[in-house]
Amino acid sequence: MAGGIGRRVLLLGGSGQVGQALRHLVWPEGWTLDAPPRSGLDLSRPGPLEAALDRCTADLVINCAGFTAVDLAEEASEEAFAVNQQAVAALARVAARHGWPVVHLSTDYVFDGRAGRAYRAEDPVAPLNVYGASKAAGEAALRMTCPDHWIVRTAWVTGRGGGNFLHAILKASLGRPVLRIVDDQWGSPSPASLLADRLRSLAIRLLGAGERPAPGTFHLAGDEPATWHGLARSAFEVLARHRPDWPQPELVPIAMADWPTRAPRPRDTRLDSWPTLGALGVAPLPWRAMLAGEVLEIAHSLRPAAGAAVTGQEERAS
């Protein structure tokens, strides 16, 4: 590790799930994680963004920012491409000028889900929706302009903050006795806390004194696949064991065709993350080992257990 050496990491997207997890980690002595607010670096305005980035000081950039509202992107394609492609292109130009390595978070939705196996990093992209297309375009822009890039694709991010599947189903279960959940779409659940830990390890290695891993595109996601229904079932099994006060809704498996969405979804975007272990020295994410902690913390934020103290933060989250 590069402890004791002053380094500055510029984090874009510090208010998102992975960004928040990165901000909560302990970094080596002398390191600074700089996470400017959106008002300071507005990714929806690539022109002013490039000028603002030029004024920043950094040794490395981690980009966790993105337009991630998959359905909304279908009708807000200009904004999606501004954030996911044009802003990344602006970052790439600045990083190339200043010699900054860039770690860029991308998505499984760059694939069409028709491979019939876990996707490898070298597989060709074929997005089905605007969100996936904009993220694929951002990847291409970074590769074209910034030689020192490490594109990390992940999937199905879960975490203790809002805005993810686990939070949505737990909240829904408080008022609905039956939940209909898709059971024929497969992916790789990825705990935000573990993903952040691996990104920190990569950043430390890139700025350390040892040999740097070669730039490229990598997959870093859950170590075993699941369907949305399977993930939900596992979550409610945790609640049955540890929160007997929590409602246990009936989980009805349905097909993707029975839950139409504005943006088409790929059916099977399992990611093969094991090659990343050899290339970057970081392992895939054992999501089942993290599930109980994530589920119980989300449950407590939504409805504290009887007799538990309620803080102001919990009241705002409920």
Q: Structural class per helix/strand content? A: alpha/beta
Question: How do the strands of the widest beta sheet line up side by side?
Answer: 2-1-3-4-5-10
- Backbone shape: globular
Would you report the number of β strands? 12
* Tally of separate helices: 11
Q: Write down the overall mean pLDDT.
A: 92
Q: Which band does the percent of strand residues land in? A: 15-25%
Spans of at least 5 consecutive residues whose pLDDT stays below 50 are 307-318
Distance between the first and last residues' Cα = 40 Å
User: How would you sum up the major sheet?
Assistant: 6 strands, parallel
- List SSEs in N-to-C order: EHEHEHHEHEEHEEEHEEHEHHH
What does the radius of gyration come to? 20 Å
Helical content band: 40-55%
Task: Walk me through the structure.
With 318 residues, the protein is α/β, with parallel strands linked by helices. The protein contains 11 helices and 12 strands. The strands form 4 sheets. Strands 2-1-3-4-5-10 form a 6-stranded parallel β-sheet, sandwiched between helices. Strands 6-9 form a two-stranded parallel ribbon. It has a two-stranded parallel ribbon with strand order 7-12. Helix 1 (17-24) crosses helix 7. The relative contact order is 0.15.
